[in-house]
């Protein structure tokens, strides 16, 4: 079974969703036959190259409710073992990070890509790392098992740029408008950071219904346009 997870490094619900899906996968009897691949999605594709404080950016975009948004995610994240630090977090462009994830998948495999994805989420949300900075990304990648020189050369050039842009376009063609969105076998989609039990049920159902007809990812329920990072998913 192949599961493609469309998510952004800067999406707090993507971090929670990943942890909950990992828990479900650990409980799934057929876990050894599941390949999990992360696909890119950018909540703020026009974010500047120079990082800025997350709190200030969120307040400018959403006003007074931004504090409650962060507090809600922090509380839920704590239950999943995630230590959000929004005071240290930086608003950054995530395109380079998605290129790096593409490198990890194509040259190291899905398992290493998963390790890197976890490391990038932690770097962004817990450690105050600028995930739009090439040097910082290189350090995160090396700690995740990638070769330092290969990563440095890759990020200094344009490798992977066209491929990541095509994957972003594919997400739009599928109708994905909020993340995380989990696409199973290219047919079934589940949107949002669902609880582990829900993910486990989906894994079991897909395993038993792989002959069912295709269902567009657009069929997944979408949050209201103004919901921002509401419970379960981020839509910006």
TrEMBL record:
- Secretion signal, residue range per the UniProt entry: none
Please name the InterPro entries in this protein's record: DSBA-like_thioredoxin_dom, Thioredoxin-like_sf
Superkingdom of source:
Bacteria
Q: Which Pfam families match?
A: DSBA
- Annotated DSBA-like thioredoxin domain ranges read 3-203
Q: What is this protein called?
A: DsbA family oxidoreductase
The species this protein was found in: Kitasatospora nipponensis
